[in-house]
Queue: 4 jobs
Job 1
Amino acid sequence: MRWIVFIIFAYVLMALEAGLSSAWRIGLSTPHLLLILLVFLGLYAAPMPLAWAALLLGALVDLSPPFWPVATGVWDVAILGPSILAYLAGAYACLQLRTIVFRDSPITLAAVVFVVGIFVQLVTVGVLTLRALPLPGIVWFMGSPIPNFQPADELMRRFFDLVYTALMAIPLGMLLLRSVPLWGFNTSHIPGLHPPRRN
Amino acid sequence: MPRLFTQRRVLLLFIVLAMISAMLPPGAARAVSDWPRARVSDLVSFVSTPLHAVFGSIRRSDPLGIDRGPEAQLRQNYDALLRYNAWLAEELRRTRAELGLYRMASRQMRLEGIRLEQADVTAWAGSRNRQTLTIGIGSIKGIRAGLVVTDPSSFTLVGRVTHVGSTSATVELITSPRNRVEVRFLPSTPVAVNREAILSIEADAKGQTFTAVAKADTPVEMGYLAHLVDTKSVWPQEARGFVVGKVTAVTPLSSDPLLYRTVTVTPVAPPATLSRVLVLVPATP
C-alpha cells in the first residue's frame, strides 16, 4: 500500500467530512467518510498496513468534532482512544469478511460498511461507557463518566449515522474502486481473490 | 538475537496506550489530546473552511426578520411619521418611566472594553447532547474558553467557546440539544410593556428551536424577542441582554390548554449554517 496515497485520501475525506457537515446533515446525522475509507482498505490492504491505517484513521476520528463535554468548567475534551480501538476492531472485522464478499462492487462496499460500522460503533460506545465504571485499586483513574452520556441514545444516533454512511458508501465507493491501481495493493496475501481490476 | 521492536509489538504497544488514553480523566485526556487536536483542526481548515462557507449556504434559510420598529413605514409615509411623533410627545411621560427598563438592559449588555474578533467557521458538528462549530481563530488572537460568540449579521447569541487551540477554537452552540437558558421576553419594537416575562427555555432534541411552558397569562406574544437574562451566572456578564431568538409560536398546552401555553422560540439565524461569527473578547479576563 502506498502511504502517500493513503495520506492524501484521508486528508481529503476528512476535510470533506468537516466542510460539508452542515450541508449534508439530516437532523443530527452525518456520514463518516473515514469509515468508508477504512472498509475500502479492509477489502484490499495487507493485514499489517491495514492495522496501522486503522490506528491512524481512528486517531483522526477521535481528534475531530464533536468532542465530549466535561463535568466541570466551560470546556470540552477530545478523548484519544475509543475510535482507535473501534477502528482496529473494524479492520479485524473487515479481514474476516473480505474472503466471502465480491469486493469489486460499490454495493458490497456499502454492505460491508454497514456491518463493520456496527462493530466500530459498538466498540466506541462500549469504551466510552467503560470510562464511567469505577474500579478502584485496579485502574485508579477510571470512573470519569461523560456528562449526559446515555449509551442507548448514543447507539441510536450512531445507527442513523451508519445508515447514512452506508448509503454514502455507494457513490464514494465507485470513486474509491476506480482508484485501486493508485494504491499499489499487494493482493497475493488474500487466498482465492483475483488481483485488483486494472482500468 | 531477536529484535525487540517488531512491527507487531509496536502496534500492540499503541493499542495498550490507546486503551489507557481512552480511560484517562478529563484533565489528563485534555493534556494528551490538545496539541494533536489543534494541529488536525489547523490542517483540515484549509479545505473545510471554504467548503463550509459555500455549501453551508445551501441549507441556510432566510433569517427571521427582527422588527426594529415602524421606521420603514415612516419612510414610506411622512404623515404617519408626524402622527407617530405626536404620539411620542403625548407619551413622553410614560416613555421616561419606561426608560428605566432600557437603562437596565443597557447596563446588562456590558460591551465597554470588549474587542470583537471576527472568525470564519471551519466546520459544524452535532451529537445527541452537543452541537459545535469550529472557528478559525485561537489563542494567538486572545481567544479563551468561555468567551461569548455572536452572529455578526443579526448580532444574536450563537454560543460560547469551549476549547481553544493556537489558531482554532470550538464553540458550543446555544442550540445544543436540551440546553437550557433563562430569557426575558420583550417586544421587538420599543413600546411600553406593563409586565415582562422571564422563562427558562430548553432547546429541542434536534437543536433547532427552544420551548418553554408558561402560564396562560404570561405576557409573551408572537414576534417577541427572547433576551438572555442568566440569573444563575452560567454565562459571562457580556452575554446578558443578547437576543437568543424570536417567539415563533404560542400554542395552548395540549395537556392543560386553559391554564398553560407552550412558547416556541426560534433562533434568528440557524447557528449551524453560519459561515462567520463574532467573538466578544473582554480586555480583562
Job 2
Amino acid sequence: MRWFIDTMVGYWVLLLAISLGLSAIVYEVFLKQLMR
Amino acid sequence: MFDFTVAGHVVPVFLLVLTGFTVGVVGGFIGVGGGYMVTPALIVFGFPGYIASGTDACHIAGKAVISSIRHRQLGNIDWTIALGMVGGTMLGVELGVRLLNYTKAIGLSGVTLLAASVIVMIGLFVYTQLETQKSHKKLEADQKAGKELGREMKVSKMPLFFQRIPIMPIIKAKRARLVISMWVIVIVGMFTGVLAGFLGVGGGFIRVPSMIYVIGTTSHLAVGTDLVEIVVSGGYGALRQSMSGNVDFMAVFFMIIGAMLGAQFGSLATSFVRGPAIRYILSYSLILATTGAFLRLIYVLTGAKIEWLSFIAVVFTLGEMVFLCLFICTLVYFAVRYQHGKSCPAWVPPLVVQAS
C-alpha cells in the first residue's frame, strides 16, 4: 500500500483509480438518464 | 437541477460549477484553456455540440482573465513574449484553418487530422515526460548534495540553440531574462497557431511546452504568458460564438462561479512548486486527453451502440479533469506539509519550494 504513496508512479495510479471511481459514481447517479 | 433555455436540457448545476472549478485549477496551473476537456464534458452533460463549443469558449475567456490577473501579481507574465506570440498565433491559426480546408478538399481531413493530433500529442508527452524526469532526478541529486535549489530546473539544451539565432531584431525579454530574435517568438507563435487551427483546439498545450523548450522561458512564466494569449484568442472566440448564438450564458455563469475559485487556486498553486511539477502535470494532461479522445473516437467508429464503451469514454472524460485537479491540490497539500517540516512522500521535496 505504501508503494501507492511513496513512488510517483504509484501515486499516479492511485489518483487515477480514485478519479475514475468518482466519475463512475457521478455518471451512474446524475448523468445516465441524461445520455441519449 | 436547472432548465437551460438555449440548450433545452436539464443539467445538474453543481456539475457545471464543479467542471468550472476543476478546469480552472488545471488551467491556472499549467496555462491552458482546457477546451479539450470541457467541450466533451458538456456534450456528456447533454449539451448539443455547437452549444458545448460556444459555451466553452466563453468560459475559457472569463477564466483566462482571472488566471492572468493572478499570474501578473505573481510576476509570471512576460509582456514582450506575449505580444510577439499573439501576432504569430493569429496568423498561424488562419494558415492552420486553410490547411484544414485544403486537406478536406482533397478528402484527407479525417485521417490527417487524427494522425496529426496523435503524433503531436504523443510526441509532446514523450519529450516533456522524459525531460521532466531527468530534471526531477537532477533536483533530487542536488538536494541530497545540499545545494541550494532554484524555482526552475531544465536539462533541455534546445533553447540555447534558438537563442543563438542572430536574425534582427534581437529583443530583450526582461521578465524572462533572455535575449532572443523576435522572429523566433513570432515563428513559434505562428507554428503553434497552425497546429491549433489545423487541429481545431486553442493550442495552450502546444504553446506552453514551445515557450519552455524553444524560447527558453521558465515553466511559471510560460504558464502566465500563455494565459494572456488565451485572453486575446479566447475573447475573440467567445465574441464570435456569442454572435452566432452558440452560447448558453446561464451555463457560462455557473461555470465561471467555479472557475473564479479554481483559476485563482490553480494560479496560486504554481507558487508552491518548482518548474518540473508544472511540466509533469502538463504531460499528464497531454496523455490523458489523447487517451480520452481515442476512447470517444472508438465509440463513435463502432456506431455509438456499445454501452460499456460509452460508459468508459464518459468516465474517462470526467476522470481526467478530476485526476489533474486532485494531483494539483494534493501537491499543494504536500508542499505545505513539507514547508512545515512534516513528513511527505520522498518524490515531493524536489518538486516543491521550501518556505521562504
Job 3
Amino acid sequence: MKNIILKNRYTLLVVTLVVYLGVLVAEGAITGREVRVFEFENPFFDFNVNNFEGFGESRSDSDRDRDRDEDRDEASGDV
Amino acid sequence: MDRFTIVQFYALLRREVLEHRNLFIGAPAVVALLILVATSWVAMQIDETQLAEGLSYISVLFDGLSPFDMAPFFMLLAIPFMLTLYICSAIYLINTLFQDRKEMSILFWQSMPVSNLQTVLSKVFTVVIVAPIFYVLIIFAMYLIGMILLTILVVSNEVDLVGIGWMFLAAIASLVLIYCSALVTSLWLLPTIGWLLLFSAFAKKTPLLWAGGVFILVGFFEDFIFGTQYLANWVQSRAANPNQYLIFEFQSLLERIFNYETLFGIVVGSVLITGAVYMRRFTD
Amino acid sequence: MSNIVEARSLRKNYGNFTALDGVDLTIPSGAISGLIGPNGAGKTTTLKALIGLCDVDGELSVAGRDPRRARHKLMEDVCFIADVGILPKWLKVSQLIDYVEAVHPRFERKKAEKFLSTTDIPANKRIKELSKGMVTQLHLALVMSIEVQLLVLDEPTLGLDIIYRKEFYDRLLNDYYDGNRTIIISTHQVEEIETLLSHLLFINKGKIVLDTLMSELCEVYTEVLVDADKMAEADACGPIHVRELLGKKSYTFESVPKERLEVLGELQTPSVADLFVAKLKEDRHG
C-alpha cells in the first residue's frame, strides 16, 4: 500500500488531496454544514454525476424559466 | 527529546531566519520606518504647542491604569505589521520547499542527518512562533523611537509628562497581545500553511499556480462527485471570521485556540503538512 | 571482508527513459571503489539511490540500512559530495560550519578549521562569492571532518582545473583514507583515479558490465601487442576488443589462460581506461 502511495509525487498528491477532501466532506455531513454555498446560473456548473440523466431536462427547464422571466420583465417595463 | 535534537532544531530555525532576513526583519523594518516617517510628517503640520498639549491630555487617560487593560488601544498600529507578516509568510511558505530543489542545494541539506519531518516542522515553527518574535521586536524599536521623539516634544514645550510612562507601558503590553494575535491566527490558518507547504514540495515549476489552481479544482471536484460544497462553505466561514485575526484582550486567548473550529483546522492542517513531509523525499 | 554496500536488481525509470536496468553490485568495506561509465550510464542515479536521495526498486543495503527507510539515520554514517555545486549559495562559510557542527553528531570543528587554514577560503565570504574550486575544497574539508564509514563522491572534480583536481585526490588519500573507511567515486575521467582504486565498477546503459577488485584484474584481463603474423591466431582466442597501435594490433582478452596468449606477443595488464573502452565496445556489439 505504502509503495503505491509513495510511487511518485503525483500519486502522493492525489492521496493527500483525497484524505483532505474526505475529512472535510465527512465533517460537513456530520456537523450539518450548509450543503450549497454558490448557485450557478449556467447549468453547466451545476453538472454533477448524480444529475447526469436529468441534465438534458433541467437545461431546457432553466431556459424556459429564463424566457418566462424576460417576458414578465418586458411587460412590466423593467428591462 | 535529548539536548542534541534541540540543538539541531535550533540550527534549522536559525538557518530559516538567516536565509529569509528580508521577509522576517527587512519587511517589518520598512513598515516601521514608513509609520515613523508618516507620523512625524503629520505631526509637523500641527502647531507644536497644541500637539504637545493634546498628547499630554491623552497620556493623562493612561495614568495609573493597568497597561494590559490599555494595551488594546495600540492594536490598530499592529494591523499593517500583521498584514505584512501574513504576506511575507505566504511568500516564504510557497517557496521554501521549492527553491532548494530548483538550486540543487537540497542534495546538501539531505546529505545531513536531518529528517524530512524535522525540516518541514522547522518551517512551520518559523512561521508560527519565530517570525512574529522579530516583528514584535521591530514594533518595540518603533515604539521606543516614537517615545523618545514624544518625550522631546513634550519636555521642550514644558508640558506635564505624567501619563507618557504609562502610555509606553501600555504600548509594551500591546506587544504581548500582538504576538498572541499572530500565534492565534497562525494556528487558525494552519490548513493554509499546510496547503502552501504541500505545493511548495510538490511543484517542479510555478508552485503558486499549482496551489491556486488545484484549490479551485478540488472545490469543483467535490461538487461533481458528491454534489456538495462543504469545502467552499468551510473556507468561506474561516476567511470571513475577523475576530480570529486580531485579539484585543487576553481573556479570550485560550478560547480562540481551544475551540472546535481551530482544533479541526489543526487536524486538516496536519493532514496537509504530513503530505508535505512525505513529498520531500522526491528530490528531482 | 564484509560488504558495506549490497544491491540486487536496482531499477529506476524516469518516464520512458530507463536509468537503472537491474543493477547488481557489492562494495567491500575499506575499498576505494570507482564507478566508471559514460554520460547517461546511470552513475548519478546509482549513487543517489545508495544514499536514499532517489527511490529505486530492488534490494539495497548500505552500512546495514535500507537508504529508503531512514535516510537521515544513514546520513550519520555516510557523507556525500555531488558534481553540481550544491552548497547553499547564500550561506557564509562560517555559518555553514556552524550549521554542520549543530546538526551532525560526528563533525569535528577543529579538523575542519585546520583543513580550511591551508586554503585561501575566508570565513566571512558567502559561498556564491567563492570559485568552483574553492567550493569543492570547502565541501571536502567539511566531509573530511566527519567520522563516517562511507564517503560517496559523484564526479567531485567535474569542471575543476588541474591544480584543484590533484589536490582533491591528494587530500583524500593522504589526510582522509585510513584503510577502514570506504570511498566510492564516480567519474568518466578514468585516468585520474585509476591509480587510487582498489575496486572497479563499470556501468553502461543502466547495467553493471564489470565488478572486480583491482588485485584480481590482472588475473582476468590481459592485453597483448600482437605481430601481424600472429593475428589470425589471436582472433581465434576470442578477444573482447581489438585496436590499432603503431602498425601492430592490441588485443584485449578476458579469462583466457596466459600460457595460451604468451606466444602471441608481449603481455601486459590493460589500463583501466583501455579496459573501460574495451568493455564498452563489447557491450555495444553484444
Job 4
Amino acid sequence: MSLTRRIFLKDSALAMVGIGMLPSWLARSAWAQTPGGRKKILVAIFQRGAVDGLNVVIPHGERNYYDLRPTIAVPQGQVLDLDGFFGLHPSLRPMLPLWKDGALAAIQAAGSPDPSRSHFDAQDFMESGTPGNKGTDDGWLNRALGRAHHPPALSPLRAIAMDAQLPLTLQGAAPAVAIENLQQFRLGGPEALFASMYDQSSDALLRPAGEDTFQALKLVRQLDPGRYQPAAGVEYPNHPLGKSLRQLAQLIKADVGVEVAFADVGGWDHHVNEGGAQGQLASNLAGFGAALSAFWTDLGSRQQDVLLVTMSEFGRTVKENGNRGTDHGHANVMFVLGGGVKGGKVYGDWPGLGGDHLYQNRDLAVTTDFRTVLSEAVERHLGVRDMAQVFPGYQSSGYRNYLST
Amino acid sequence: MSPARSVATVALLAACGCLLAATRPPAATSDNDQARIVAAVNRLTWGARPGEIEAIEKLGLKKWLDQQLHPEKIQEDPDLAARLDPLTSLRMTPAELIASYPDGGAIRQMAMGKRPLPQDPELRAIVEREVAKFRARKDGSADPAANTAMAAPGPRLQPAQLPLAQARDVIYQRQPQQIPAFDLQAGKLLRAVYTRRQLVDVLTDFWFNHFNIYLRKGEEPELIASFERDAIRPHVLGKFHDLLLATAESPAMMFYLDNWQSVDPRVNKRGINENYGRELMELHTLGVDTGYSQQDVIAVARCFTGWTIRQPGRQATFFYNDRLHDHGAKVVLGQKIAAGGGMSDGLKVLDILARSPATAHHISYELAQRFAADDPPPALVDRMTRAYLGSDGDLRKVLQAMLSAPEFWQAAESRDKIKSPLEMVVSALRGVNAEVTNPMVLTQIIAAMGEPLYGKEPPTGYANTGAEWVSSSGLVSRMQFAQRLASGRLPGVQVNWPTLTAGGPVGLATLLLHEPLSPASQSVVDTIPAERTQEWAALVMGGPQFQKR
C-alpha cells in the first residue's frame, strides 16, 4: 500500500471516530451540492473470458468474415446494420436506440500491444493498464482517481466495484469498495464495535479494507436500497450485469458521490458451440445488451455525467475452429456509452480479415491501443491532467475523439 | 490463554517430555512448541477443534505431522461416513450420475423420444413432469396456471430448515438436476469440518483449485464428483506425474478445457482445440512466462488429439480414439516426438512437463504460497523445488521439505495469512464444535464471502493470496456470519454456546484464536456485559484476528 492511502485513511478515521451519528459531510445533500456541480462518473465494464468481438460488432460487409466462419457467422439478413459495413449482433437490439440517439459508439480492432493469449495475464495487463509489465499492483481506474481533482470530503463510495471482490482495475492507493449486493450490505447493532476493532488492527489488508467498509456501510444504510424503483418503463434483465447496473444506477441517482465504478460479466470463452445469430454467445449478449440499455434509460437526467466503457482481455480467432467455436485471438471491440459520446459511429481503423492483414496470420490486428480509448475517457471525461501517472510509459499518438469536447 | 490452562500445558509438557526438545534450546521449549503446534494446525488443517492443540501436545508434533502425511495411519471419524451418507451422488460414476439426475439436455432427448424414460418409478414420475413442462414450453402453451398445476406436489418446504437427507429429497423432487451440485458443495463442507485426515482434505482443496474446473459450464456437475474423488484426492500425497495424468484423463477436464473435441484436422475439419494445451502448460505445470511459445501450444494440442470422452451424455469415460489422433511428428519445448506415437504422444508431453524444473518451481511456489506466505521466502521455495526434482515429483517429499524448513515455521508462526471464506467458516465451526445437520446455508454464506464452492469460472482457480479475499462485501459477509453463528440464527447448525462462553471472552478467544485477543480488541469486547454472550462472541469471530491463520 502506498503512503497516500495511509494518510487518507488516518485522516478519515479521525473524522469518523467517536461520532455516533452520521457526520454531516456524509449526508446526501453534501454530494449533490459539491462546488462545480455534479461529478463526472466513469464506469468500466469488463467482459471476462474474451468475448468474440467479431460477432458483436460484425463486419458483415467483408466477404472473409463469412468465408472464415461457415457455421458461426451471423447471416447478413439478421445483422442489425449500423453503417453498411458493420452491424450489431441481433441479440443487441436493445442497444440500437442508444446508437441511433448518438449516445453509443464502438471502437473496433482495439486491444493490447502485448501478444499474450492467456486470460490471466491479459486481464491483468488490461486492468493494470500496463501491458507487458507484471510488476504493477494497482489498476488504471484507481490511479485515475488518485490524480483527479476532487473536493476535500471524499465519499466512501467514490470508487466502487459491483462485485464480491475488488478487481485489480480498482486496487491501489485510493480507497475503493466492492459491494455485490446493496441490500445485504449491513451489519446492525455491533457495527461500531466491529469498526473499532478493525480500525485498530495491525493487518495491512484488513485495516484499510475495514475503514472503507465501515464508511460505506453508513452511507448505504441511508440509501435504503430495498426500496429502489428504477425509472418508469425500465426493466433490468435477469442477468448478472443487469443486477450490477441496477444497483449502480441507484447509487448514481442518489448522488452519493460515486466517481468511478466497475462491473464485470463472464461467460464469453466460447471454444465450443459458440453459436451465431442464436446460441451461447447470443444469449449472453442478450443479457449484456438489455442491461446496458436499461442502465442508460434508468439514468435519465444523469446521462450527461456518465461515460461507460466496455473491454475484454483479447478477441478471438477470426476463423472458427472445428468445434464451431473460436480460440484466443488478439484485437476486440470496445463500446463507449455516454452523454458526451459522439455516438452512432464505429471508430478505429479496420485492418481487414484478409490473410496479409491478420496478426500472426490468424487474428484481428490491433489498430487502437486500449489505453488510447481509456486515456481519452480519463483525461476528457474525468478531467485528469497527469496522464503519465495513469498509464505510465504510454503516450497516445492521438485520441479517437469519440467524446465531444 | 487462561492462566489455568497455561499452567496445565506446562505441566503436561514437563511430564511427557517434548519429542522435539532435542533440536532446540531447552529454555524456550514449551513456548515454542505451543506456538509451533498452533502454527501447524493453523496452516495444515481447517482449524483446531476444542482439545485438539492439547491432544497434539500429548502426541507430539512430529508424530502428528507424520500421521497427517500418512493419512492411512489416522482412524477416520466413524461419524463422517454417516454424515456423508445421504449424498449418494458423491459415490457414483459419471454414468450413474447422468442416469440418476437427468439434466436439461437429457429431458429434451426424452421429450423427443431419443432417450428412454428411467425405470425407477420415483424418478420416472419426476421426469415425466419435467418432460411435460418442456413440451408445454416448446408448444408455447405454457401459462402460469399450467406451470402451477405441473409443479411438484405438497407444501413449499424450505430445504435449508430441514435435516440434510430431507432437504436433499425436497430438492430432488423439484429439480433433480440440482442434486450433483448440491451434493458436491454439502460434501465439501462436511468433510472439511469433520474429517480427521485434515491435511489430505486441505490438499484436495488446494489441488482441485490448481486444476480448477467450473461447476456450471455444461456437463461438469455429473463429472466433478469423480474428478475430485478419483483424480485428485488419491494423488495429493503421491507423485505429481500421477496426479497430472489422472487429471489429463479425466472426462471433467476433457470437457471443461474442450480437449474431447480436439482432433486431427485431416480427419475432421473441426481440427485442434488449443484450450487444454495452453492451460496445461500455463496453469497446471510450467507456469506462465516460462519460455513456451504459441507453436508449443499448438504442438501440445496436436499430441492430445484423440484424447476424448466415450458417449459423453451417457457413459462419460475416458477414451483414446486413435482415428482422431494427429499422427504426424511434433516438437514440444524443443523435444522431438516422432510420428506414429499414438496415445504415447500425450503421455510423453506429460512426462516432459512433470519433470521440468519450471514445473518443480511453479508447484513448490504455489504450495508455499498456500501454506507459508503470500510472498513465500525464496529459500523455502528453493528447498521444495530441490525436493521435487530429487524425488521425481513426490509431493509428500515436497511437503516434508517444507515442514523441515525454518523459513516455513517462521512464516507460519507469524499468523499472517488471511483465511479464505471456506477456511474462515470451517475454522469457526470446528472451533465451536458445531453440529452441522444441513450445510446449505453455510455454502451460500461462503459464496457471498466471495468463494462459491466449485464456482470459480476461469481455469486459474482462486488466488492463494489474501488480496483475493479482502473486500468490503467479503468483510461484511464474514461479520454477518459471525453474528448469525453466535446468536444461533444459522439453520442447520447447532452450537452448545453456554459451555463455550462459560470462560468469558478470554476463554472463547483462547479456544478460537489460541492466542489472546489484542489489547485493542479486548477493550472493545470488554464494553459488552458478560451476559450478552451473543454479542461478544460475534465480535471475537468477526473481528480481524479470527480472519487470519
